[in-house]
Amino acid sequence: MVAILIIGGTCGYVLIEGWPFADSIYMTLITLSTVGFGEVQELTPQGRIFTSMLITVSIVLMACWTAGITTILVSGELSGRFLMQKEKKMISQMKDHVIVCGGGVTAMTVIGRLIAEGTPVVAIADSKDEIESIRRIAPEMPVIDDDPKSEMALVDSNALAAKYLVAATESDYDNLLITISGKGLGTDLQVISFAHSNELASRMFKVGADDVVCPLIIGGEHVAQLIRSES
């Protein structure tokens, strides 16, 4: 549309005023942009009418463009708010559900299996990529965009009515803090945490974790079992 206006304006000045191409396109550009520069050459009455029309079209085009951008932004914001309200209502009605903290490979595996079995799940993740990945495998499952270590995130996930809390971030230290926050609620919430370090796994048990899963140890034991079965 802008290109058509530039071409039309340039041709108009060439035909109406008889100006050179360079003067015509320059006059068109400063008119459409409404920068307020002076006229390149003295305009004839016909030229002034043409310029007025060009300015009017430019203003209308700018208004339409601005309205379009505003509509897109407002529409996206309203859509996001509607989804948040919908998920909050869904979470508030949940009971004996599972809260999964994290959005990495471990958390995604847990979420995928639980969803496949029909278990109600709420996920907590603070990475945009992780949240998008979770929504791809479970589009109807509520996801809280917040720091999994945050006690407020646990409150928003209706942890007081939940049955399990799974600390499945990629960081053992984060999982330890999640465990502490979960057990600090003072409910019957069972906390299962993942740990790659034996030392941190021991700490998780000390702060009240009901179970700690060490993927590396389990993997090693599985490999040894495969070798024994082949022998």
UniProtKB/TrEMBL annotation:
Signal peptide: none
Any single GO BP term: monoatomic ion transmembrane transport
An example Gene Ontology CC term for this record: plasma membrane
SUPFAM superfamilies: NAD(P)-binding Rossmann-fold domains, Voltage-gated potassium channels
Compartments, record wording: Cell membrane
Protein name, UniProt field: Voltage-gated potassium channel Kch
InterPro entries: K_chnl_dom, NAD(P)-bd_dom_sf, RCK_N, Trk_Ktr_HKT_K-transport
RCK N-terminal domain span: 98-215
Domain Potassium channel as annotated: residue spans: 2-73
Species name: Stieleria marina
